[in-house]
Design goal:
Largest sheet: 8 strands, mixed
Oligomer: single chain
Strand order of the largest sheet: 1-10-6-9-5-2-3-4
Strand content: 5-15%
Length: about 400
């Protein structure tokens, strides 16, 4: 149960009364007559083989207000794509599955590459970017929600609360970020947010001084949540990373493009659990180690564009300050876990902080060694300027795939 307290510079919409989801959905149906809504589901094919997505699909069958569901499918063969079309065919909404590995979408990607506009790295950010391009090409919605496909504790209330702030015509929000406690059964989760992002933001405030960007990012209760919603107009000028920096990149872009009174966060779940990544301390190319590297790089790039002059000496100070703050946070989290009857492995927590501290410095060195890197995917407004017909071609490609391979 949340309270009404407002912290930071972003409006927080709480869950104060346990309002029935049917009430929310009735309003959303009314809103949908003037503000149609879509849902984007970025998915790996492997998620179709797990229990989480099957439950999500069952819940979505009861959602009455969505105009369209767009599934971005990665790492799928032709047979697997056919299976995906069958898998989602039971949904009552209009469903389109983007076969990102199919020949038609690869042709779209090739045209983008020839103009230097294609995403440079495979990952969730690339998947989301193509889905957003299809949302613009389709033109069927004015509000869009996005959530992950591995949520084990999913209910349709999550979606209703997530999209409500940008769907309600009497609200002025352009963007809404979901948040929730990362607690599952008896354990406290969310290591990257708890042990990396929050202490790193506090360290950056100490080293770099107070910056509105840092205060803004620190206002979000769960900045790495994969669930957010936005008005469709927002997509045109959105430039996002293609890697694990997606969530930080999206938040930073919203700060750059809109006043903070047009942005909010909303409590969307009492508990939340999904598949967990390994720490991978020996390999920075996978697991939470890669995630932490990508997030640090995204933060440092945004600080640089905000005017901060970064150097090797400053990164050493940031690392040392982060490490001390993160260790202090571990005791805070441990006490919070104990009073709530939860378990927290202090040794594992400190091991994670050691890996993250190393990666703070590695990400800093990478940033200094690659000053000309352009890691953000170009905005769709730039794509439309360079290739005016491409969005229509992409819509045609998706339609052709869905028709040719439909069960």
């Amino acid at each position: 149960m949340g309270d009404f307290y407002q912290n930071g510079i972003v409006t927080t919409l709480h869950n104060l009364t346990r309002r029935p989801v049917e009430d929310l959905e009735a309003e959303l149906v009314h809103f949908s007559r003037s503000r149609p809504m879509s849902l984007v589901l970025p998915s790996l094919y492997s998620e179709l083989e797990g229990p989480a997505l099957a439950h999500i699909v069952e819940e979505l069958k009861s959602v009455p207000y969505l105009e369209e569901i767009i599934v971005g499918l990665d790492r799928a063969s032709e047979d697997e794509y056919r299976h995906a079309l069958s898998y989602f065919s039971g949904l009552p909404q209009r469903v389109k599955v983007l076969w990102n590995d199919g020949p038609r979408m690869r042709d779209i990607d090739l045209k983008l590459r020839e103009q230097g506009l294609a995403p440079t790295e495979m990952g969730k950010g690339r998947n989301v970017w193509f889905c957003f391009g299809y949302v613009l090409a389709s033109g069927r919605s004015e509000s869009v929600a996005l959530h992950d496909c591995d949520i084990l504790t999913y209910s349709r209330e999550l979606l209703a609360r997530l999209i409500y702030p940008v769907a309600n015509p009497s609200f002025n929000y352009m963007f809404c970020k979901g948040y929730y406690p990362r607690v599952a059964e008896t354990s406290m989760n969310g290591r990257v947010s708890r042990l990396l992002v929050t202490p790193l933001l506090r360290a950056l405030k100490k080293v770099c001084g107070r910056r509105e960007l840092l205060d803004y990012l620190d206002s979000f209760r769960y900045p790495l949540a994969g669930e957010f919603s936005l008005r469709t107009d927002v997509i045109n000028d959105l430039r996002i990373p293609s890697d694990w920096g997606l969530e930080i990149g999206v938040l930073s872009e919203m700060k750059r493009n809109y006043a903070t009174n047009r942005l909010c966060q909303v409590d969307i779940a009492d508990n939340y659990d999904h598949k967990h990544q390994e720490l991978s301390p020996e390999d920075a190319s996978k697991g939470l180690s890669k995630m932490s590297m990508d997030i640090c790089k995204a933060l440092f790039r945004k600080l640089a564009t905000d005017g901060e002059v970064l150097s090797t000496e400053e990164f050493r100070t940031i690392k040392a300050t982060y490490y001390r703050i993160a260790l202090d946070f571990i005791e805070t989290y441990q006490n919070d876990a104990i009073i709530n009857g939860l378990t927290l492995d202090r040794h594992a927590e400190e091991k994670a902080v050691e890996v993250f501290a190393r990666n703070v410095m590695e990400a800093g060195n990478y940033f200094l060694d690659n000053p000309m890197e352009t890691p953000f995917i170009p905005s769709w407004s730039r794509v439309a300027s360079a290739l005016p017909e491409l969005m229509q071609e992409m819509q045609d490609a998706v339609e052709a795939d869905n028709q040719e391979f439909a069960p």
